[in-house]
């Protein structure tokens, strides 16, 4: 097996992104609470870890820049540098530059662009103001130098790698290369006494050791930290061969615990709490592609299980039916477990917007605070990845157009500070994300006027407030008086709606003049597999998401004729609008002698779907429709039944929305019920 260094480097890239995100959140926390020592420590540890790990892979540009940032953070930690707005802004920009270097140098293996290099130099110059005057510029290869480490010391490092170091994706030579950046390697002796006989060689095992003489100004702790990345796969002993007298005494204390005759694993300088180690050991990083492959295989397993159940029922073999039922139960448990693996909290996505709100509010000259709730709400990782851009645009739009300036807010009797909230919660098998502001709200009359000018609404048309507000999602629609670098061009809101629709979600908004606006996004928990309810029309089969089904009703002859004439059904005193799926999907032929109504509900909307047959519950593996069927309204996807037939999945929110629009535009007929209760 070849050494998979690429995999190890990809792990570093992923972890570096996470560390930079954590560093950003800690900086924002420090901005609001300048005395928070925990935040300062977290920021320093993030930069320190990134620098050390980058050095193992020879990413000198990342090491060099991060070292300067680390120096400033170290002074901040010691109290030599005070926290102020300028420093926070500078460190945030440094974090952005570090992320750019990781994306370009580490991920793509490219050289930074001249513009990036220029930004880096400008940041280095800005950071120098927070460093001691005697500090000289640090080169790309500069090692970590402590204040008490100005004298070079000859270090002897005895290093033995474990047999599994290759299997874990580590290259022993990368550690030697990193040591070379910390000083001068005077001698490296490769030890081969552990190499077994040729018949016992294992190409996946490492049998090498090294004796190293290094002259460096780095401290014992710094050299020890080089091996943090491979701590569990090596044995290391570090000792000073010669040193200045005052330095020898200090080092002696460090080496007391290493005076045992055998090689002992070097202990980390920062001992983490045992509970933290336990927590870390409970998590395993899995490639997302492997997880997607698992979900696909589980989906195929669900389809195969349904086919086996169908054959078992037709065989009239009781033991076979019982075995098939047992397998179906196990498949359902596997399905639930697999889907749970892809569920992640949306809080990480929400937290990324703290920086966005901070930067944009400063750009606009507004004081805006972001309030996050429901961060623990979980949904499919695919949905989380794709919802970020729509949320970003909605937040920017709310800050630019929704929340007024401080003077306008005071004149309206509000506090000078504006509030923007992000909230997520589960509702009826879906996740609802709300973006709310306490701004001026939408101008109903201006939206209607603009829509009439563009020909979107006929003059004199009667529209509900909801319909008027939803006009802002039309392509190219804008009521902004002036174009800014944030909004006003009439693009973006239509893209938001289109992207959410592609996720099988819906978006609507509500606004109150002078009080603010709420945008409400409703999304499915997963895009892979759902619990469905099978219904039949003629020879065709449709799937209704089970979490939207409330009850089923059989229609008698009188109800059939009455509902056909009025379009409504009296459901225990409640007026229920109906959708005849036979007519909606243009099925030819006469209706079945017996018809049924499936009562469905989504958010506050409720309706009945008239079908021929009720076929029961079904584990539905969602298959996307091709581009040829992309324009079908009321259909969100397809699935394969146990018999091999294809069933279409109904898009219930779209069907209900059509009913709402029809009710709003159509005057009530004399024979129709006067009010539709939902």
Describe the protein's architecture and organization:
The protein has about 675 residues and is α+β, with helices and mostly antiparallel strands. Helix 4 (about 85-105) runs antiparallel to helix 5 (about 115-130) and helix 12 (about 345-365) runs parallel beside helix 13 (about 380-400). Helices cover about 45% and strands about 20% of the residues. It is flat and about 105 Å long. The longest helix is centred in the N-terminal third of the chain and has 28 residues, at about 5-30. About 30% of the residues are buried. The chain contains 20 helices and 21 strands. Strands 6-8-9-11-10 form a 5-stranded mixed β-sheet. Strands 19-12-13-21-20 form a 5-stranded mixed β-sheet. Residues about 135-150, about 245-280 and about 670-678 have low confidence and may be disordered. The protein folds into 5 domains: about 5-130, Four Helix Bundle (Hemerythrin (Met), subunit A), CATH 1.20.120; about 155-265, ACT domain (Alpha-Beta Plaits, 2-Layer Sandwich), CATH 3.30.70.260; about 290-340, Helix Hairpins; about 345-525, Heat Shock Protein 90 (2-Layer Sandwich); about 530-665, SH3 Domains (SH3 type barrels, Roll).
């Amino acid at each position: 097996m070849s050494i998979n260094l690429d995999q190890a480097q990809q792990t570093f890239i992923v972890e570096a992104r996470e560390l930079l995100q954590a560093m950003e959140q800690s900086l924002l926390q420090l901005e609001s609470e300048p005395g928070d020592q925990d935040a300062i420590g977290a920021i320093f540890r993030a930069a320190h870890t990134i620098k050390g790990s980058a050095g193992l892979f020879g990413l000198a540009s990342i090491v060099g820049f991060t070292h300067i940032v680390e120096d400033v953070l170290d002074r901040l930690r010691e109290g030599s540098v005070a926290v102020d707005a300028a420093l926070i802004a500078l460190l945030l920009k440094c974090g952005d530059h570090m992320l750019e270097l990781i994306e370009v140098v580490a991920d793509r293996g490219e050289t930074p662009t001249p513009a990036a290099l220029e930004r880096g130099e400008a940041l280095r110059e800005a950071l120098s103001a927070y460093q001691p005057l005697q500090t000289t510029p640090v080169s790309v290869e500069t090692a970590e130098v402590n204040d008490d480490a100005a004298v070079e010391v000859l270090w002897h490092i005895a290093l033995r790698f474990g047999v599994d170091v290759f299997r874990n994706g580590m290259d022993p030579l990368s550690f030697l290369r990193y040591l070379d950046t910390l000083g001068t390697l005077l001698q490296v002796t490769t030890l081969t006494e552990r190499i077994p006989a040729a018949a016992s060689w294992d190409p996946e095992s490492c049998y090498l050791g090294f004796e190293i003489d290094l002259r460096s100004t780095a401290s014992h702790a710094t050299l020890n930290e080089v091996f943090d990345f491979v701590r569990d796969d090596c044995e290391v002993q570090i000792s000073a061969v010669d040193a200045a007298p005052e330095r020898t005494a200090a080092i002696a204390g460090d080496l007391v615990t290493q005076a045992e005759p055998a090689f002992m694993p070097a202990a980390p300088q920062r001992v983490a709490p045992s509970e933290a180690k336990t927590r870390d050991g409970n998590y395993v990083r899995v490639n997302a592609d492997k997880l997607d492959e698992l979900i696909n295989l589980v989906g195929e397993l669900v389809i195969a299980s349904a086919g086996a159940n169908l054959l078992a029922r037709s065989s009239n073999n009781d033991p076979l039916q019982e075995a098939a039922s047992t397998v179906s139960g196990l498949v359902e448990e596997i399905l639930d477990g697999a889907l749970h693996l892809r569920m992640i909290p949306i809080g990480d996505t929400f937290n990324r917007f703290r920086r966005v709100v901070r930067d944009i509010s400063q750009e606009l000259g507004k004081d805006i605070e972001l309030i996050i709730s429901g961060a623990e709400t979980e949904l499919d990782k695919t949905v989380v990845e794709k919802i970020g851009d729509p949320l970003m645009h909605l937040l920017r739009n709310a800050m630019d157009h929704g929340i007024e300036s401080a003077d306008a807010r005071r004149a309206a009797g509000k506090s000078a500070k504006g509030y923007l909230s992000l909230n997520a919660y589960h509702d009826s098998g879906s996740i609802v994300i709300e973006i709310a502001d306490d701004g001026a709200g939408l101008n109903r009359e201006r939206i209607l006027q603009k829509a009439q000018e563009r020909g979107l609404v006929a003059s004199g048309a009667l529209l509900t407030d909801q319909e008027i507000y939803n006009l802002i999602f039309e392509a190219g629609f804008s009521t902004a008086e002036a174009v800014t670098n944030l909004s006003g061009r009439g693009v973006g809101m239509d893209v938001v709606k289109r992207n959410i629709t592609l996720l099988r979600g819906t978006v609507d908004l509500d606004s109150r003049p002078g009080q603010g606006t709420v945008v409400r996004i409703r999304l499915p928990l997963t895009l892979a597999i759902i619990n469905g309810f099978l219904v039949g029309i003629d020879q065709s089969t449709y799937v209704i998401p089970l979490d939207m089904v409330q009850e089923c009703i059989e229609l008698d002859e009188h109800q059939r004729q009455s509902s056909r004439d009025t379009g409504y059904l009296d459901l225990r005193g409640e007026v229920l609008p109906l959708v005849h799926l036979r007519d909606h999907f243009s099925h030819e032929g006469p209706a079945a002698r017996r018809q049924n109504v499936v009562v469905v509900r989504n958010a506050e909307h409720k309706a009945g779907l008239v079908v021929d047959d009720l076929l029961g519950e079904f584990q539905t593996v969602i298959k996307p429709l091709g581009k040829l069927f992309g324009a079908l309204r009321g259909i969100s996807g397809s699935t394969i039944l146990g018999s091999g037939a294809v069933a279409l999945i109904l898009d219930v929110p779209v069907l209900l929305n059509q009913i709402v629009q029809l009710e709003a535009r159509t005057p009530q007929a004399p024979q129709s019920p006067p009010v539709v209760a939902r």
